Amino acid sequence: MWQSTDGVHVQLALEDLNAVKLLVALAVSEETTYLSAQAEVVAGAAAISSMAARPVRKYVPDVLAPSVVSFDFGSFAGDLAPPLLLLTANEPLAAGGSVVVAEKLTLLSRADGSGETLTLSKVFTRTSSQRPGAVELQLSDEDFDAYLQLTELGRSRETLFLLVQPGALKDMAGNDNLFLPALGVDQFRSEMPASQIPIGGDTGGLLEGVSTTSSTFSTSTSTTFTTTTEPATTE
User: Fold this and answer.
1) Which residue has the higher pLDDT, 111 or 229?
2) Spatial separation of the C-alpha atoms in residues 150 and 115, rounded to whole Å
């Protein structure tokens, strides 16, 4: 929070911003954005008396692309089951991440793309309300068969990278994800029996005063409330 000549600025913490984004009917337009305040929400010379909800003066929509910040991989012994991937984005995903365009995800054995590659054709998704930016993907049988035919890709942590094309995922505002040419795997588990990886549950790391006269709200990552102020009055 800081004060300038045009008012008091309040920047939301990332946790609070993501909580706002998960509420699909809140702060998605000027008509759905209001601000209220309790007494003494700002201390000192700029102290604000309690304020009933007031409409936003200026609304800035979220136009920032989400980004995949990490991915985990769990491969299984033999032909028990297809591997699992856990993608984690830097913000909540549309439809809880359940809508993923598999064809825009490619596994690489080398970061420069010169080795073996596997572009996915279909995935089965599972999401967790506890981690709104994470989505668990299970390869289809067809993609798993193609994976088994390869000899280098995904056989160790050093031979697994993920290429993410724009449009593989969307955030709550409908923005496509950023392009990632080669993201190295974070957690890698191999030769693990399928029964040891809980699906759709806890994956153990694979999926875990002054009176205000107007306000401004932005739904980008650096969301701020700006309140214009006038000298406080006392009763």
Assistant:
1) 111
2) 10
